[in-house]
Amino acid sequence: MKPITCSNYNNIRKYILYFLLLSVLLLFLFSISICVGSIAISPQELWDVFLGKSENDTFFTIIYEIRMPRAMAGMLLGGALALSGYLLQTFFQNPIAGPFVLGISSGAKLVVALTMIVFMNNTRMLSSATLILAAFIGSLISMGAVLLAARKVHNMSVLVLAGVMIGYICSAITDFMVTFADDSNIVNLHNWAMGSFSGISWSNVTTIVFVVMLASTITFLLSKPMNAYRLGETYAANMGVSIRMFRVMLVILSSILSACVTAFAGPVSFVGIAVPQMIKKLFRTSRPILMIPACFMGGGVFCMSCDLFARTVFAPTELSISTVTAIFGAPVVIMVMLRQRRGM
Amino acid sequence: MDIPYLETKKLAVGYQGKPLIQEIELSLSKGEIITLIGPNGVGKSTILKSISKQLKLISGEVLLDNISTAALSEKELARKTAIVFTERLSPELMTVWEVVALGRYPYTNGIGILTETDRHKVEEAMELVQITDLREREFAHLSDGQKQRVLLARAICQEPELLILDEPTSYLDVKYKLEFFGVLQKMTRQKKIGVLMSLHELDLAQRISDKILCVSCDASGGSITRYGRPEEIFREGFIQELYGIAHGTFLEEDGFVELEKCTGTSEVFVIAGNHTGCFTYRDLQRKGIPFSTGILSENDLDYPVAHALANQVIAVKAYEDFTEEDYRKAEKELLSCKTLICCQRDFGTQNRLNQRLVHRAREAKMPVTIL
Region B263-290: what's the mean pLDDT? Predict the structure, then answer.
């Protein structure tokens, strides 16, 4: 009896290849994001700056102060968003669940906006941690509402519909507050509420790295129970998964991950659904131990490309990140829904 | 010798604090098979779910090896019991091999990497239920019967001491039903695991179970009406009563059923015996024609079916000769019918009076059909 069969072996080679592909794409997009912009920087110049050989201070400032944190944020937050979507899909056992569709991003947006208005009126600075905390609380509130709905309805489409409604309610309240906020706050708030990776500082990035990496690592450690959960709650429980604990972890982790994104970049749509779906299609498996890192990397690739698109295509006008992610992400969601309808 | 492995004490099960079935007392030794039977919706699955700790107990306790399951951690319990339940599963993009390998869950490390031994056990389990050639197929695309076998393999490689199965054979064809139970018997005999399951197929329940637990339901709620060996359950029309069968007959000797008999004045008299008549009886039943039959010995192979379907059976006690008196009764019944069907061509010393009945019918100018 051969423990590793031929097809098994081929699969492993295939997976390694895909991970390499994702890594190369990440690196490539990261470099491109730094080079491309209103002031173009050639790869040669980038390399010089990187090695400290460049005399050009402007380049240094552009790279280190503006483009690099933005690219980092795009990569990490994209990964966080994709992962958050994957966790929610696992939780609800529904391929079209995601932080944006279920109204979780909008809940986070609401509380962050509220916090911004209150704090800025008192002319205090908002720390990254405060922002994340506010977004996390907002996420949990929305998540709670979705969970309440989920207890009543078992139909997945209705659940998603409930999520979309919750999202609308939160957005309406946010708009209402923005309307009555002080003029000085509005510009700031409006930009953020539209969603963008611009204006992210190194201190933000540090916080993002810390929170996202921690949450992602814990998520990765949950890949074993997530694997068992693929067979549904009954079987997972029989295999020794403590379901209650596991579900709480899923909710908290997905909320933290999406909260982190909303806190810094505003609500970003469709990444949470589209990326895990595309990764599943590529890998032809749903094994969490592969899906978790792959979704994270895929999310990074997706968001960095979308951000690049958002800021270059109509430069100097910048599109909101959600506009771009929706253009590329929504068709994927529609495809998934159509396939489900056919009884896949 | 018979140390119980699984025991329930004053167990009450149900939902949301409301007891559905109370006073469940059963004990299962290793290597034994206990089957739960009873009408639909009576709570057989509820009992199984409660024993496997999927549902909270209302009261009482479940003991495994004298330890209450309440005191066992999820992992400890997972190494002792494995389940195959009826819920329909279609996990996305999951191969058969992956599903079976999940059975190793309680034995693998923190992120679930399989060791050489684990892989070996997975292969073994797949071979046992003959699904090795399905290994790379996507689980969601299999037929219900194949899924059922994959899930059994998963349970087997969990290496449980107790296997809990909820209607495991519902989707299987007759070949796989037999093979499924063959595997179960092998496991109970060789690995000495205990099996607790619910079944709808009474014929199979009668054959495979060491003990049978009958769950029934009345106005005051569910209860265990009988618990014992198959021969103690399948007698005195108990099954008919348990399921409240009013239309048709359950033949408890072999676990089969016959449809409802056609009543009224008999139109046809059937002469049968030695398993020649049962298809004719059923044919007449299908056409809705009431009939009488005789003379049959009570130990004749045709007798149970005749008893279930015929308006009147002229029967003789087992091992007794047919007498003139029996003949006269049969003759009277025959002459009240319109036609005679004779399923027999061979007459011996015991049933020569049946041959006389054929002659009598011819004399009376009755249409006679000899099959």
Answer: 92
